[in-house]
Amino acid sequence: MNKIVRTWKLNGEQRTVEFPPMRRLLDVLRDNLSLKGTKEGCSEGECGACTVLLNGKPVTSCLIAAGQVPDGAELMTVEGLEHTEGGRLLQHQYIEKGAAQCGFCIPGMLMASYAYLAGADDVDLREAAMREAHAGNICRCTGYEKNYGSRERRRRTMAERRETRKNRTTGPR
Amino acid sequence: MGQGTFTIMPQIVADGLSVNMNRVRCPNPDTKFVPDSGPTVASRTTMVVGSTLFDAAIKLKAQMEAYASEAFFGGAPAELNEHFFKNTYTNETIPFERVADRLIKEKGPQRVYNQFKLPPQIRWDQRTFVGDSYPSYSWGCNVAEVEVNPLTLEIKVKKVTSFWDIGRVINPVLAKGQIEGGLTQALGFALMEKMGIKDGLFDASRMQTYVVPTALDTPEMSIDFLEFPFTGTALGAKGVGEVPIDGLAPAIANAVESATGVRINELPITPEKLLSKLGAVV
Ligand code: FES
Ligand code: FES
What we know:
The structure holds two protein chains of two kinds. Chain A is about 35% helix and about 15% strand. By secondary structure, chain A is an alpha+beta fold. Chain A folds into two domains: about 80 residues, Beta-grasp domain (Ubiquitin-like (UB roll)), CATH 3.10.20; about 90 residues, DNA polymerase, domain 1, CATH 1.10.150.120. In chain A, a hairpin with a 2-residue loop joins strand 1 and strand 2. The termini of chain A are far apart. Chain B is an alpha+beta fold. Chain B folds into two domains: about 110 residues, Aldehyde oxidase/xanthine dehydrogenase, molybdopterin binding domain (Aldehyde Oxidoreductase, domain 4), CATH 3.30.365; about 140 residues, Aldehyde oxidase/xanthine dehydrogenase, molybdopterin binding domain (Aldehyde Oxidoreductase, domain 4, 2-Layer Sandwich). Chain B is built from six helices and ten strands; from the N terminus they run H-H-E-E-E-H-E-E-E-E-H-E-E-E-H-H. In chain B, helix 1 runs parallel beside helix 2 and helix 4 crosses helix 5. Bound molecules: FE2/S2 (inorganic) cluster (2 copies).
């Protein structure tokens, strides 16, 4: 099959990549771009392990043909988190809470947390909304409380969120 | 693979040695170098391997203290405490590194060997299968609060309250996480996870058909420990691997019975099963 070329803003950097248009975004990220942080769990859009941000919105990269992602799109994978204030904060909070056991769900789970918390100005930090935001990510080991966070953690997040949005390199436009 | 072994084993060794945890390295176990310690079963790693390491660390500490006493304190007793060896008569201290450097130069790397021993009160006869096959058990108590929709018979677990005796808790964060994860799985087994066999094939072989709990299905969970250190080992820890998954499904079944008056003896407890039983009752 003919290959196509795309240039994306990936984790804050311009990256150009060539691939057969129907290759899944997940495979382009993992195999063409060697970003192995994004995981493949179910391959059918159920588990959320493959979640990445496309223009700031969480998407399951196993269900997206990479050719659908246009030039200039902003992509963020779990590898991009450490370049943002909010991403680093989130990593620390996950570690502090012992959120990862086998860790397989964690790249996707982190992206769901980040997308939600670094999203719009009026993020609803109440428990029901936080649960909803993480409902597309399945974790078999550790339970979910650690991911959507304790009340105290959400308060802290709220306090630091302004910082997060100022410093993030990619996110919703 | 996520059970926390590489966190708690250094913790246990550091505790036994009275040194900082970042002085302890935990290499990947390799069967080329370690003896066969039996199967991966019965949540025994912390109790068996942990105790073995704890006792070994205590032996190693005594060995180093004996050397410090003889080489630096003229025979006065030495006590290792984090960064120093202390002469317990004069309170004089020598940094850990100095003692360790000289010890390695003079006597080479220090090794200790230790083997897990069953506490003496535990007897098991392999020929007659009589006695205690396990030296101790962890215990848990689960309370489930459920709501059953009278129209659709859907079951929602509103809250889970649980208490656990896993002996001495080595790492409260990891232990709690293990229990939360186990309870979440138990909730799935109780209410939604269903794997049947049809024409020789599993009928729920994908995540689309085998439904497991998400963040929207899990209730508020209150998890607490009652710490009764196991008296059979110096470490006092028991296992926390499997026990969290055992009790919640029966607790949910009991709660559903108390709400509806019918008892379902087969998991998962689905609205369909409730309907057929209630139909029989009405
Ligand atoms: S691998 Fe994409 S949702 Fe499971
Ligand atoms: S930590 Fe294992 S699946 Fe989430």
